[in-house]
Design goal:
Length: about 220
């Protein structure tokens, strides 16, 4: 049976169609969900895509966290459903406290749009099952507030509980411990700053993102 992936659209999202197309390319079925919806329907997984939800006013992800659909996303996640936040979606997951830490302005206060090499640090997430620790993936970044920060206590917890999913080979934004993506303790909620949907077709220069999306559609 084809895995249905709901992609939530917030006012200001701009990567939702890219995610749907990438999911379809790897054998899933992407469908858009509006942020004012109060239920997820019959989807098997959820993606919060990149963009500028609610214009990133107040604080990135802070307003989106209160959109009606987030109640359903939180229940889905806490019941073990696969939830992935990409870039702005990662920021929303931290604001919703589905993931620890926060995303801060890049080192040097520069917007970054460039390829990045990620190292897989955990096989226990819904994106990396089937991959190996140490695998390197080329996935582009496109952000201004992608600098992951957390306390020493949270960092120790992330390490102890195998919640660091990706690190940068060459840290572009100053992120704590080179972190590019993390997951919750169960591995079903993942946030990452790089964009796997932009590396899911040969014409995009890399198909490494497709490996992650294949993991998502086979994880339910």
């Amino acid at each position: 049976m084809t895995t249905k992936v709901g992609v939530v659209v917030f006012p200001g999202s701009n990567c939702e169609q890219d995610v749907v197309e990438a999911v379809d390319t790897v054998g899933g079925s992407g469908q858009l969900l509006w942020h004012k919806d109060t239920c997820l329907g019959d989807v098997d997984a959820v993606v919060l895509p990149g963009g500028f939800a609610h214009g990133d006013y107040l604080r990135t992800g802070a307003m989106a966290r209160f959109s009606p659909i987030m109640g359903a996303v939180e229940r889905f996640a806490r019941d073990g459903g696969p939830v992935v936040g990409i870039c702005n979606g990662f920021q929303i997951l931290t604001e919703a406290q589905l993931l620890p830490g926060a995303l801060y302005k890049n080192r040097g206060l520069k917007f970054l749009c460039q390829p990045a090499v990620l190292r897989v640090e955990s096989m226990d997430s819904v994106l990396t099952r089937g991959l190996s620790i140490g695998d390197e993936l080329q996935i582009p970044i496109n952000h201004f507030e992608g600098n992951f920060i957390c306390s020493e206590q949270v960092l120790e917890q992330l390490r102890d509980k195998n919640q660091i999913v990706f690190t940068y080979r060459d840290n572009p934004n100053g992120a704590t411990a080179d972190i590019a993506g993390i997951c919750n303790e169960n591995g079903n909620v993942v946030g990452m700053m790089p964009h796997p949907e932009r590396a899911a077709h040969p014409l995009l220069g890399s198909t490494d993102g497709a490996l992650l999306l294949k993991g998502l559609i086979s994880s339910d």
